[in-house]
Design brief:
The structure is a homodimer. By secondary structure, the first copy, chain A, is of the alpha+beta class. Helices cover 24% and strands 26% of the residues of chain A.
Chain lengths: 278, 278
């Protein structure tokens, strides 16, 4: 047995143990706005439901271990005390991972990650149309847990409205665990899909994906690629040379590229899509 | 899309939606003591880590939706502000489910569920020896979220010591998501195993299992039955007639009973084990 005094190890190491042990962690895909109405969308796995009456959820945007900076989501809920908690299903995971990158203040991750904004009924931040369950919430309180890098903030949210896609309900009207098909965070780059288990989403922390909005129109509007396929293609630091010239694609090549993406092989997918260009 | 005002539906229905949507929820298997030192062990899925520096976890013992009573764990942390958060691996799940039943005040669920107490270094509640990671915590604060049935309590815990089984670490000393093999809660009776997906643990809420301490010694000490097998055999309202007379068992019958348990068929397992009695 490894016995550890948390004060005697670096924060990054302690962080790794905490994130490796407390698993799987559900994901809050939080939509917020700043005082000027700029939208932010970012995922958090320090999250859960804690009460049914009143219906309370808590998530924590933590100060970065790396440089003690805070996240735009935290700044936003301190300006406008509202949030939409969107639940993340497997078919959203690659786009969600794209939205987790640290884009500059003012960048709308709905656009970068290719999600669709839907107006909320009672709060300012929009909902994520693709999400199977969306909780409109008022933020009752934000409790800072510390001042140093790694310090979390308890954002205590009260649900004021729920939106549930009917196709995740079973015949009795109860949410079916297989149909909602949630994903959750494990340690490192690992996720788990509730209905089938562990998978990896590689994501170099300091790299920003170009975003779905930067993909050539013919790829973005393809009927062959799923949201996860597009999310993977958009999660590159820069588009391959010549990709801006792609204006048509054979169906066969799209199918081959999709196969490569299924294997997690983004470079091969891109080389198939750009083969007629250079 | 089903759009719901949380104030317009019964709490039990809202509870079901919240638990069906916010998934998978990690499990805090909380060990606490009352002022007299009586030990309690109970699982909570309103739980997560929220901060690395300071290392903060939060779990919520909620007032029961059914009758607005509180849980012994809550009473204990209000008397002795300490808890051990034990992480639950797949091979512990049936015994853990047994410990989730509402045994009377003063009943030690370590005994009922067949877990082993290990003294903690810095806090009074014991650790669960079988758990792959054990967090000794001081309780900084308890925040009541409401007064009615369904109201949660944020039990804000600071980790003061970690214990990690070395066999869940990979070659670089990081917790391996497959080796820790955690389970988590979905809605209803559903769980998910991080590495392989959804499974069910049927548990009538108001039934108390007889407990592992009530099983015949020859079954309890069998080398053939796992902890999960014993947990299933002990999760019956009463032992089958004549079971107290079981003093020896053929290996072949134990293997057959184990096969039945693998299929979730507890009645058949018991009828194999008692076939020579009546």
């Amino acid at each position: 047995m490894l016995t550890i005094d948390p004060h005697q190890i670096p924060t990054a190491k302690l962080h790794s143990y905490l994130l490796g042990a407390v698993t799987p962690r559900p994901i809050c895909f939080a939509s917020t706005v700043d005082i000027e109405g700029n939208v932010n969308l970012s995922p958090f796995s320090f999250f859960n439901v804690f009460s049914a009456k009143p219906p309370i959820m808590v998530f924590s945007p933590a100060r970065r271990v790396r440089d003690n900076t805070t996240k735009h989501t935290l700044e936003n809920v301190q300006q406008v005390a509202e949030v939409v908690v969107n639940i993340v299903s497997y078919d959203m995971v690659q786009q969600m991972s794209l939205a987790s990158a640290e884009y500059d203040k003012g960048v709308n991750e709905f656009v970068k990650a290719g999600f669709t904004e839907v107006p909320s009924d009672l709060v300012k931040p929009p909902r994520v149309k693709e999400s199977p369950v969306q909780f409109e919430c008022k933020v009752n309180e934000v409790i800072a847990l510390g001042e140093e890098g790694g310090a979390g903030h308890l954002v205590i949210c009260e649900v004021v409205r729920l939106h549930i896609k009917e196709d995740i309900l079973d015949a009795t009207g109860v949410i079916d665990p297989a149909l909602i098909d949630t994903v959750a965070r494990m340690g490192g780059n690992w996720y788990t899909r509730s209905r089938s288990g562990i998978f990896e989403v590689p994501k170099p922390v300091r790299t920003l994906g170009v975003g779905i909005d930067a993909l050539p129109e013919v790829i973005r509007s393809s009927k062959i690629f799923s949201g996860n396929d597009l999310g993977m293609l958009a999660n590159v630091q820069s588009l391959p040379a010549g990709s801006e010239k792609i204006d048509q694609l054979e169906e066969e090549d799209q199918l081959k590229a999709r196969e490569a993406l299924k294997m997690g092989d983004v470079p091969t997918a891109w080389s198939i899509l750009t083969k007629n260009i250079n």
